[in-house]
């Protein structure tokens, strides 16, 4: 069995996020700091990556002052607490090959020092020395201590309610080492 490791190229990898509320949604990006994917006989067998929570950007708010205020709020303890937890982690714990390039991935997602298992579908394409992988992870923010304006914890929020689930659309490019 031939095992091959691929290092994630941070400059060519990122996460697009979407958070929803009653009155609409916000979106942006967050950087993948480092990580790797492991293959055996051409099949994905493992992986892990670190997410740089200090890199959160908001793309849908054009006003610089409002954007900065919102970014500061996402970095605060109400959400990611980036000062104390500058990294989130994802570590693959199980992989189910579903078809040629389609995999079911399960792994441990750690945000703010709190770890929960998440599962999602991923498309993984391997060439001779490069791998690309994409997948959409739906995360319940309340499991990671992000309760701000959650209907699970606060009543009568009306149109200020923020939905608990947010999407992380992960895009990874990795190179053989």
From TrEMBL:
Domain Lipid/polyisoprenoid-binding YceI-like: where? Answer: 5-175
- Alphabetical list of InterPro entries matching this protein: Lipid/polyisoprenoid-bd_YceI (IPR007372), TTHA0802/YceI-like_sf (IPR036761)
Question: One Pfam family this chain carries?
Answer: YceI
Q: Which PANTHER family match?
A: PROTEIN YCEI
UniProt-recorded name of the protein = Polyisoprenoid-binding protein YceI
Whose protein is this, by species? Mucilaginibacter gossypiicola
């Amino acid at each position: 069995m031939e095992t091959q490791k691929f290092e994630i190229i941070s400059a060519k990898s990122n996460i697009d996020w979407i958070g929803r509320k009653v009155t609409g949604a916000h979106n942006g990006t967050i950087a993948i700091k480092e990580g790797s994917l492991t293959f055996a006989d051409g099949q994905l067998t493992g992986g892990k990556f670190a997410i740089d929570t200090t890199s959160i950007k908001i793309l849908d708010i054009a006003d610089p002052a409002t954007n900065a205020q919102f970014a500061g709020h996402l970095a605060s303890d109400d959400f990611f607490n980036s000062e104390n937890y500058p990294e989130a982690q994802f570590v693959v714990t199980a992989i189910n090959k579903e078809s040629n390039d389609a995999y079911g991935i399960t792994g441990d997602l750690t945000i703010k020092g709190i770890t929960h298992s998440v599962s999602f579908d991923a498309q993984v394409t391997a060439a001779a020395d490069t791998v690309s992988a994409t997948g959409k992870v739906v995360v319940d923010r309340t499991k990671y201590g992000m309760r701000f304006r959650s209907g699970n914890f606060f009543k009568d929020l009306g149109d200020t309610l923020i939905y608990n689930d947010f999407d992380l659309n992960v895009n990874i490019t990795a190179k053989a080492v």
